[in-house]
Amino acid sequence: MSVFQRLSMIFKSKANKALDSVEDPRETLDYSYQKQLELLQKVRRGVADVATSRKRVELQIQQLEQQSGKLENQSRAALQQGREDLAREALTRRSGLQSQIDGLKQQHEQLQGEEQKLTLAAQRLQAKVDSFRTRKETIKATYTAAQAQTQISEAFSGISEEMGDVGMAVQRAEDKTAEMQARAGAVDELLESGALDDVSGSSKDDIQAELDRMASSSGVELELEKMKQELGQGSGGAAPQLESGSDSQSQPNRQGEGA
């Protein structure tokens, strides 16, 4: 196989593939049916034309037979009048008409045979066209149903892919929602336990602050009372007087004795 033959084959195969991709079988069937109808119409016109010719020949035969009958009558009348020459002339003309009539009858028989053949062909073609129309409509309906099923399947396939993406998005949203709920619950627990309270005390309420102040004052009073007891200044006790002179310098402080 030469290079040009291979290129031609490749081109034809690609052209056929391109045509198959754009061809709609329903349109092709309708086109074929239309062509068959046109052919049937031509056959019917042929039948009509033959029938018209046959009818025309029949009329000519009738006219010639009428003329032949008239000449025969004229020939008889001439013989009755003793004019044998006129009778012979009339019969001679009648013989020529009969020759034409015989030729027309043969043509009429041929036209009848042709008309019968065309009529039978038209009937057969009509049956084929009717059968093709029924088959065409069935194929078109089946193709339309298959095309719709294909489109539905493709649509469901696309929906399935989109639903997969939607499902993943929903799952991510649910995961984030659960995470946020968990964090909110943990923060609530920490707030209830006081773990997140401000160490500076700024977040404490007024009651807690007042309690803290009362506790602090009570501690101060207790510490003050303790110091008083250590200094001998118990409840109502007088402080010892310091002696003047050298004794006050030589003797140690006796504050501890009253302790």
Cα-based radius of gyration, to the nearest Å: 67 Å
Question: Quick one: CATH class of the domain at 25-167?
Answer: Mainly Alpha
Q: Give the strand tally.
A: 0
CATH-derived topology of the domain at 25-167:
Helix Hairpins
Give the oligomeric state. Answer: single chain
Judged by helices, strands and strand pairing, the structural class is: mainly alpha
Per DSSP, the total helix count is: 5
Helix amount: over 70%
Biggest sheet overview? none
Low-confidence stretches: 199-203, 234-259
SSE string, helices as H and strands as E: HHHHH
Shape: rod-shaped
Query: End-to-end span in angstroms?
Result: 135 Å
Kindly list the characteristics that best describe this protein.
single chain; about 260 residues; mainly alpha; Helix Hairpins; 5 helices; about 0% strand; PspA_VIPP1; PspA/IM30 family protein
Structural description of this entry:
It is a single chain. This protein is mainly α and 259 residues long. It has a domain at 25-167: Helix Hairpins (Orthogonal Bundle), CATH 1.10.287. The chain contains five helices and no strands. It has helices spanning 3-22, 25-80, 84-193, 206-230, 247-250. Mean pLDDT is 76; it is low at 199-203 and 234-259.
